[in-house]
Amino acid sequence: MKLLIQQRLADVPTVWGDYLRLGAVAFLQLREEAYAQTLPAEESFRLLYLRAGTLYLVRNRVEAMYAGESLLLLPPAEEYHLHFVEESETAAYWLSFGGYGCARLLEGAGLNGRLCLPMRQGAELSHLFEGILRQAMPAPADAARRSLTSMGLFLQLLAAAVPHPAQLLADAPDAPSASPAPVEAEPPAAEPPCRTAALAYAVHVIQSDLARPLDVEEMARSLQMSASHFIRTFKAQVGYSPLAYQTRLRIERAKDLLRGSSLRVSEIAAKVGYQNPMYFSTAFKKHTGMTPLEYRDKSLAS
Predict the structure, then answer these.
(1) Backbone torsions φ then ψ of 47, nearest 5 degrees
(2) What is the value of pTM for the model shown?
């Protein structure tokens, strides 16, 4: 069973103007079924809540996997591909919002620049999304009340994702230490040895099991870094973001298997971490210019 509901929200009353406005809200429910959808690039943020199931999100040709109870803040002006894996139950909501006040609002809440938002312990957001969806349904003319109700529910969604002050402190980018500087400063190094060792460990983890989904935030926590600091440091040393690096390794491993084995494309996809063979073929072609079968045929012919 597949249920997909998408509704436009009523225009926000004049008091909000273009400072903050809600665009569209959607609800997806699946039973024992996979589903894929592309969210085209638009000048709005999107708030996506995966209540149950598994989602493969493709952004800038990089794939990341998210499990149930994930809240994602998708930046504007980017295209997103959503692949919901076939499971016993999948439920997801997404909501678009925009306005010239969005950046200031998110910055003040400590959410700007985050993709996976840190939901508060025990937060269950379905009723808030469902409330917004109900306000968007056709009803007797009372747009002002319904729009303000929708806005209030939306602000509650953001409030549920506002990080604890300790988390904000942990995520602060390279704040100067409050302790006094040493009398004799050591010569500057390109990277502190401890950070280099940490990144070497991260690279080893990614290389050792390409089929395992990469949780960047969890890996950053294990290295006692904020996610943004970890990604920035990883890219500076490796040349790619962690997810982009994993994707390149997956594609290279897939090429080896296509050349040196008789495994089916679906089997190779699973071995390198893609549960959806169709998406694997799409990702492979984006990186190589050929489908997996075309690559295999060309390799055998050469």
Answers:
(1) -110, 115
(2) 0.55
